[in-house]
Amino acid sequence: MSIKKRVLIVEDEPSLVFTLKDTLENEGYEVAIVEDGKEAVNIVKDFRPDLMLLDIMLPGMSGFEVCKKVREMKMNFPIIMLTARDQEIDKVTGLNIGADDYITKPFGVKELLARIQARLRRANTYNKPGPINTVNLGDIRVDLNESKVIHPDKEVELTTREVELIRFLVANANEPVSRDSLLENVWRYEFSTNTRTVDVHISKLRTKIETHPDDPRYLVTLHGVGYMIKLA
Ligand code: CA
Fold this sequence. Notes:
binds calcium ion
């Protein structure tokens, strides 16, 4: 049995709500409806929509505000804004605050369904966390696919181990990582490795990714704890 995709409709125009609900339910979506902007912000945490259809002119809070608040809550489902006003300024505002698409009323049901499907397909691919390929450290760029560090004035090669080390630190960016954890996850307790091995590799890596390896800005030591990569 396939799981129904959930669509949250935020719209205060009864006839449109009726049509949207009917159409989407017929297409197999699970639908929730709110008519008020503030209520929309409250319901997303519980309803966890896969996609939101969001009117702009709403009681309580405008669609723009709703969109902004939802993004501030770090919710990344696609948002398609519904607007009666086909004005360029609205589109720009909407897209700047994190809306994914726009549809101007009146719209055809087929067009709306096509847009919803397109957004849901894209969301599926976006949400799969792929491996991290580049890390930016100020004006230094680390290309993990190519195993190299690109400085403004030079390029430096990374060893396979260094790439693994960076990947692990970046996966835990801004959190302390102990030497034991590095031994376990990067060296996998290979024969004759110890915490000293970790320290030596970290020092070497600093010479490659830090402008001032003796006073590191990104790959820092946390005394008595281990290491941490600091990313903005
Ligand atoms: Ca409205």
